UniProtKB/TrEMBL annotation:
UniProt domain FAD-binding PCMH-type: residue ranges: 54-233
Family (UniProt): Belongs to the oxygen-dependent FAD-linked oxidoreductase family.
GO molecular function term, any single one: FAD binding
Protein name, as recorded: cytokinin dehydrogenase
Cofactor: FAD
Assigned EC number: 1.5.99.12
Provenance organism: Vitis vinifera (Grape)
Keyword vocabulary terms for this entry: FAD, Flavoprotein, Glycoprotein, Oxidoreductase, Signal
N-terminal signal peptide: 1-21
Catalytic reactions of this protein: N(6)-dimethylallyladenine + A + H2O = 3-methyl-2-butenal + adenine + AH2
GO biological process: cytokinin metabolic process
Classification via PROSITE patterns: FAD_PCMH, OX2_COVAL_FAD
Keyword Glycoprotein set for record: yes
Length: 524
């Protein structure tokens, strides 16, 4: 269909569905350079996400070719009488429909359709930054920067996520203790606000918008460009895992390692994570491609009598020119830790392979049909002072000895997070991420069912509430405004609401987050 005819069709569909009273000729004047689609396959893709627990069909899908396209569409939605909603979709890796809408348009930000005018990420070697399109996947950012011998400093465990999507949350991994989350490593953004204005913002320019958008859950604008800080790229990674049977020794060592963030590079690790092993299957699970399948690790061999084990995971980056000192540096650091002596597992691999490790696991799961299944994930920030109570109540209590997926646990330093951004973290200098990354399977085993796992998530949240453990959800999901107010706390909620009034007064953006009631209420 010719682009203008298709656009007319889309507009009439919008008019009949949400009663849009905007003069259609105004929308026709949009002259979108990209592609506005009602193709069923586009609509279907935008209706689902990685969580596979929510479905909402948009009226149309925009594949923008530029930031101006995004601004044109949002501007038109802002001008519509009934509040047509607009949701940016990065790579659809949300769990609870956060990038969906049923009464508006989804903007497919990821670059796969090839209609964009924006080129590859652009690197400034001299100033050590990269300018990336908001829908760029981190894997593509990495590939481009590596051509210049540079790489971003702070990561997520998985790289097939979009720049705009992770910056709307925080973007965390084992480097966060040292460099802060990804939102602490951004110099500048181009943002289309809910009024359809395309603005550049940074610490110095439009700073309120800059801080609002970082960790802003897509509520204040659509990120079309991010300028991200870079460092010289390491060539290789020494990747080490050690085991603990005692939780307080495990957390003491993790906290010690993150306290070294101010030390010279050779006196600290570059990445500190960890995970909980509550059953035998897990140590060799999909995130643990680290251990050779021909030589699986046996929990029983560590004398835990069926109890919970904790695995500390650390890495040291290096350049081939410094390879001769890496053994010494690693050994000196490991000597200060208190893990089970016989439990040191080491591997060595190229930097890219380490960063891209979860993709390998994805391919394995896809080949077994275990990727496109419901994911009732729960991510919590737990204050340091209560992490032992969480261990007793959840890892050793609620979870029993079955988990259905990896459980990550690692601490972060709050001083690496900027309070002016929109993200919410516990009120303590150190807090832990606990990520219950579970997959629901239709296997006949009740303990693997979606209902069972979802109930268990609710039980965990109730336990924290009853025990007064002031957790904050990461990648938060609530369905009532009361819960959102509780999540943000009074002061931050006041700021968050004011920012909404300033930057998206008609509440048209990212309605799938269910924070503010949209004008077209059916989009919840
Ligand atoms: P989407 O899910 O498409 O969007 C998320 C939200 O951001 C939506 O509200 C959307 O409207 C909004 N949004 C999207 N693009 C933009 C934009 N350009 N401008 C403004 N708003 C926008 N997170 C971590 O921090 N660390 C991890 O290690 C990590 N590992 C993961 C591993 C896997 C396998 C998966 C599935 C997720 C993981 N995540 C991790 C979570 C991830 O950060 C979130 O799913 C996040 O939403 C990014 O996904 P996305 O780019 O697909 O965004």
């Amino acid at each position: 269909m010719a682009p203008k005819l298709l656009l007319t069709f889309v507009i009439y569909r919008l008019i009949s569905t949400v009663g849009l009273t905007l003069d259609p000729t105004d929308l026709l004047r949009l002259e979108v350079d990209g592609h506005l689609s009602v193709d069923p396959s586009d609509v279907k893709t935008a209706s689902v996400d990685f969580g596979m627990m929510n479905r909402a069909e948009p009226l149309a899908v925009l594949h923008p070719s530029s930031a101006e396209d995004v601004a044109r569409l949002v501007g038109a939605a802002y001008g519509s009488a009934h509040g047509l909603s607009v949701s940016a979709r990065g790579h659809g890796h949300s769990i609870n429909g956060q990038a969906q809408t049923s009464s508006g348009v989804v903007i497919e930000m990821s670059a796969s359709k090839g209609v964009r005018q924006w080129g590859l990420p652009r690197v400034s070697e001299q100033s050590r930054y990269v300018d990336a399109w908001g829908g760029e996947l981190w894997i593509d950012v990495l590939k481009t920067t590596l051509e210049h011998g540079l790489a971003p400093k702070s990561w997520t465990d998985y790289l097939y996520l979009s720049v705009g999507g992770t910056l709307s949350n925080a973007g965390i991994s084992g480097q966060a203790f040292n460099h802060g989350p990804q939102i602490s490593n951004v110099y500048e953004l181009d943002v289309v606000t809910g009024k359809g204005e395309l603005l550049t913002c940074s610490e110095e320019q439009n700073s309120e918008l800059f801080h609002a958008v970082l960790g802003g859950l897509g509520q204040f604008g659509i990120i079309t460009r991010a300028r991200i800080g870079l460092e010289p790229a390491p060539q290789r990674v020494r990747w080490i895992r050690v085991l603990y049977s005692n939780f307080s020794t495990f957390t003491k060592d993790q906290e010690y390692l993150i306290s070294l963030h101010g030390q010279p590079p050779n006196q600290k690790f570059d990445y500190v994570e960890g995970f909980v092993i509550v059953d035998e299957g897990l140590i060799n699970n999909w995130r643990s491609s680290f251990f050779s399948p021909r030589n699986p690790v046996k929990i029983s061999s560590f004398g835990t009598n069926g109890g919970v084990l904790y695995c500390l995971e650390v890495t040291k980056n290096y350049h081939e020119s410094t390879a001769d000192t890496i053994d010494q540096d690693v050994e000196a650091l490991l000597k200060r830790l208190d893990f089970i002596p016989s439990s040191v597992f080491t591997t060595d691999l190229p930097y890219v392979d380490f960063l891209d490790r979860v993709h390998k696991a994805e391919l394995k799961l896809r080949s077994k049909g275990l990727w496109d299944v419901p994911h009732p994930w729960l991510n919590l920030f737990v204050p340091r002072s209560r992490i032992a109570d969480f261990d007793e109540g959840v890892f050793k209590g609620i979870l029993g000895n079955k988990t259905s997926g990896p459980i990550l646990i690692y601490p972060m330093n709050k001083n690496k997070w900027d309070d002016r951004t929109s993200v919410v973290t516990p009120e303590e200098d150190v807090f832990y991420l606990v990520a219950l990354l579970r997959s629901a399977l239709d296997s006949g085993d009740e303990a693997q069912s979606l209902e069972y796992l979802s109930n268990q998530n609710r039980q965990i949240l109730r336990f924290c509430d009853d025990a007064g453990i002031k957790v904050k959800q990461y990648l938060p999901h609530y369905t009532t405004q009361e819960d959102w107010v509780d999540h943000f706390g009074d002061d931050k909620w006041t700021l968050f609401s004011k920012r909404k009034m300033d930057f998206d007064p008609r509440r048209i953006l990212a309605t799938g987050q269910r924070i503010f009631k949209p004008m077209a209420a059916s989009s919840w």
